[in-house]
Design brief:
2 domains; about 160 residues; single chain; mainly alpha; two-stranded antiparallel sheet; about 40% helix; rod-shaped
Amino acid sequence: MDRCEVKRCRAEAGITYLGRGVCVRHWDQLTTDDASPTLREVLGIPAAPVAAMEEAMEPTTSKASKTEPEPTSGRATKIVKAPKPSKKEKPAKETKAKKEKAPREPIESPVVFAFRLSEADRTRIHSAAGPAGATKFVRSAALAAATGDAKAFEALVTQAKSNLK
């Protein structure tokens, strides 16, 4: 095991993997997560199923026994750890029921009604309508005035006065 056992490699073996010598360059290259082919395939070692490896391994109680290197002939040895078992699956969370929105007034054929305002007038409308209510406020005021609904118009004026305070 003086040389790396990867074909056509003449580098000195620095790591012993399953009884086979591997140079540090090939070790780094073939043990990454996305390595293809894997180190086992290159060395001609059949891939062992993960479940069989987990059954064969005995749980250890001390941390020192996991990290102690095997006695070798003075070469560096890297210990290969088994993958950690996956976490238990959590039960699916219950989805909350969505709040029902109030039905909108049906509009047969919606149209846009636009007009120009100065910034000062726009600011007055926003402050009178309250937060996020300017469009509804202006629409209600225009319809109340157009239909002659004095009560609705008075209610809007009262709302505007309370928002301006």
